[in-house]
Amino acid sequence: MPRTRLVCLENTHNRAGGTIYPLRVIEEIEALAREKKLKMHLDGARLWNACVATGIAPATYAGFFDSVSVCLSKGLGAPVGSVIAGSREFIDSARHYRKIFGGGMRQAGILAAAGLYALDHNIARLQEDHEKAKILAGALARAKGCTIDPNSVETNIVIADISRTGVGTSLIIEKLKEKGVLIGDAGTTRIRFVTHLDVSLEHVQTAARYIEEVFAGFT
To answer: What is the C-alpha to C-alpha distance for residues 123 and 130, in angstroms, rounded to an integer?
Structure first.
């Protein structure tokens, strides 16, 4: 019977298709958490996607939380790396537990340099990923047997329901893989696409064409 100590929010939200937590909702959740004397943590692996899409600064989102984690290797394209931020006391404790569990690296400057480059050069371009995701969402909306509301796609993740095709996600994933389009599943009836800096506009346009071709074969 563990006691609740922490409320965690994910922004953008992965399983909800890269949707953005509205500030009003975060504020309401924080008010309840403070009333119950609970800590708040933000899983901000794609926080910069939310910031680029809304124009809201990272500090504004982070201000509601006791700790924030961000990822440098997703949309920002660094080869590896995440960062956690919080109070001095919290960071001291985090370093203590990292040491206990064998974490940490020596001579990690080259990785830090890649992260700094990503922060300096790859934030604004996230808007391109959002635009590419809209193209994929449009193709999926036109695909026979596929269900998606393109207007629900807010950032770089696209999730569509394929239950009307009558086939499983594994078959669709395999058929698209044969054409060079690599995707994943988001459950037994949903497929998931993610755009990023290694996927060009030409790649996305080609993938959109293949999506319609593949789905046409199932109906």
So the answer is: 12
The phi, psi pair for 156, rounded to 5°, reads -110, 10
Cβ(53)–Cβ(19) under 8 Å? no
User: For 111-170, what is each residue's pLDDT tens digit?
Assistant: 999 999 999 999 999 999 999 999 999 999 999 999 999 999 999 999 999 999 999 999
Cβ atoms of 41 and 8 within 8 Å: the answer is yes
Q: For the chain, what is the HEC assignment?
A: CCCCCEEEEECCECCCCCECCCHHHHHHHHHHHHHCCCEEEEEECCHHHHHHHHCCCHHHHHCCCCEEEEECCCCCCCCCCEEEEECHHHHHHHHHHHHHCCCCCCCCHHHHHHHHHHHHHCCCCHHHHHHHHHHHHHHHHHCCCCECCHHHCCCCEEEEECHHHCCCHHHHHHHHHHCCCCCEECCCCEEEEECCCCCCHHHHHHHHHHHHHHHHCCC
Q: Which domains does the chain possess?
A: 6-121 (3.40.640.10), 126-216 (3.90.1150.10)
Dist CA 206 CA 210 (whole Å) = 6
Q: What is the predicted pLDDT for the residue at 170?
A: 94
Q: Please measure the distance between the N-terminal and C-terminal CA atoms of the chain and give it in whole angstroms.
A: 49
Residue 45 is encoded by which pair of tokens?
């692996």
